[in-house]
């Protein structure tokens, strides 16, 4: 993508908003609006059409989860939402990922990591490593009725695509997938792109969630490469 990177920062703490805004602005990222709750965040997104939203998960009235749902409903691809939280294994974080968020950051994130994360999701990548997402999914999969919207029919996938999805959900990177399946990384990327397209998913984070929610991968399963 070209052009300035536009961000909305939503957090009920003014100091957090100010701090994040200063960090992003110092790196040439344009914070086009700030919001103190989820309702303000939804309105700010509609008004400014940002590339990325930094969304606090716990806010009064309309929380970050509901705001994420409202922002992403009917708007595939843009904007990207990064969840802000003080807990790395939070029930609400998992629900937000299921709703379409592209990842999460802890609020004590370093300035360098914050900037890198915003730029990463703007380019279309998922923020979380699959193995981190897997920890969330294994804890919360099938426990939250709010995730039912993510259920997908995997029948559209070819056997090879289903295999790629299963291994992706176990935490393998593209390089590891390529080595395991004796494919090039370019071919793996093509398979992943087709999986996302066929299942109507935004990124690898949602693909991992779907793999667990549909039973393709069972919570508690271990990576075959662990310990080797």
UniProtKB/TrEMBL annotation:
Coiled coil: none
Modified residues (4-aspartylphosphate): 56
Keywords: DNA-binding, Phosphoprotein, Transcription, Transcription regulation
GO-annotated biological processes: phosphorelay signal transduction system; regulation of DNA-templated transcription
Residues of the Response regulatory domain: 6-122
Top-level taxon of origin: Bacteria
HTH luxR-type domain segment(s): 150-215
Molecular function in Gene Ontology: DNA binding
Cited InterPro entries: CheY-like_superfamily, NreC/VraR/RcsB-like_REC, Sig_transdc_resp-reg_receiver, Tscrpt_reg_LuxR_C, WalR-like
Record protein name field: Two component transcriptional regulator, LuxR family protein
């Amino acid at each position: 993508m070209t052009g300035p990177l536009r961000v909305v920062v939503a957090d009920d703490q003014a100091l957090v908003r100010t701090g994040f805004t200063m960090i992003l602005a110092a790196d040439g990222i344009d914070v086009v609006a700030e919001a103190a709750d989820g309702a303000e965040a939804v309105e700010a997104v509609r008004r400014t059409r940002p590339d990325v939203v930094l969304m606090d998960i716990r806010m009064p009235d309309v929380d970050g989860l509901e705001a994420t749902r409202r922002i992403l409903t009917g708007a595939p691809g843009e904007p990207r939402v990064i969840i802000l939280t003080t807990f790395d294994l939070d029930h609400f974080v998992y629900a937000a990922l299921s709703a379409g968020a592209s990842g999460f950051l802890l609020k004590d994130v370093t300035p360098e990591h914050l900037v890198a994360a915003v730029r990463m999701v703007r380019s279309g990548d998922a923020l979380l490593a699959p193995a981190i997402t897997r920890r969330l999914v294994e804890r919360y999969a099938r426990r939250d009725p709010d995730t039912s919207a993510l259920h997908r029919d995997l029948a559209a996938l070819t056997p090879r695509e289903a295999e790629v999805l299963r291994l992706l959900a176990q935490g393998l990177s593209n390089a590891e997938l390529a080595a395991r399946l004796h494919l090039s990384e370019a071919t793996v990327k093509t398979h992943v792109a087709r999986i996302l397209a066929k299942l109507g998913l935004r990124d690898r984070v949602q693909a991992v969630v779907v793999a667990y929610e549909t039973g393709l991968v069972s919570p508690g399963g271990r990576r075959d490469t662990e310990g080797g």
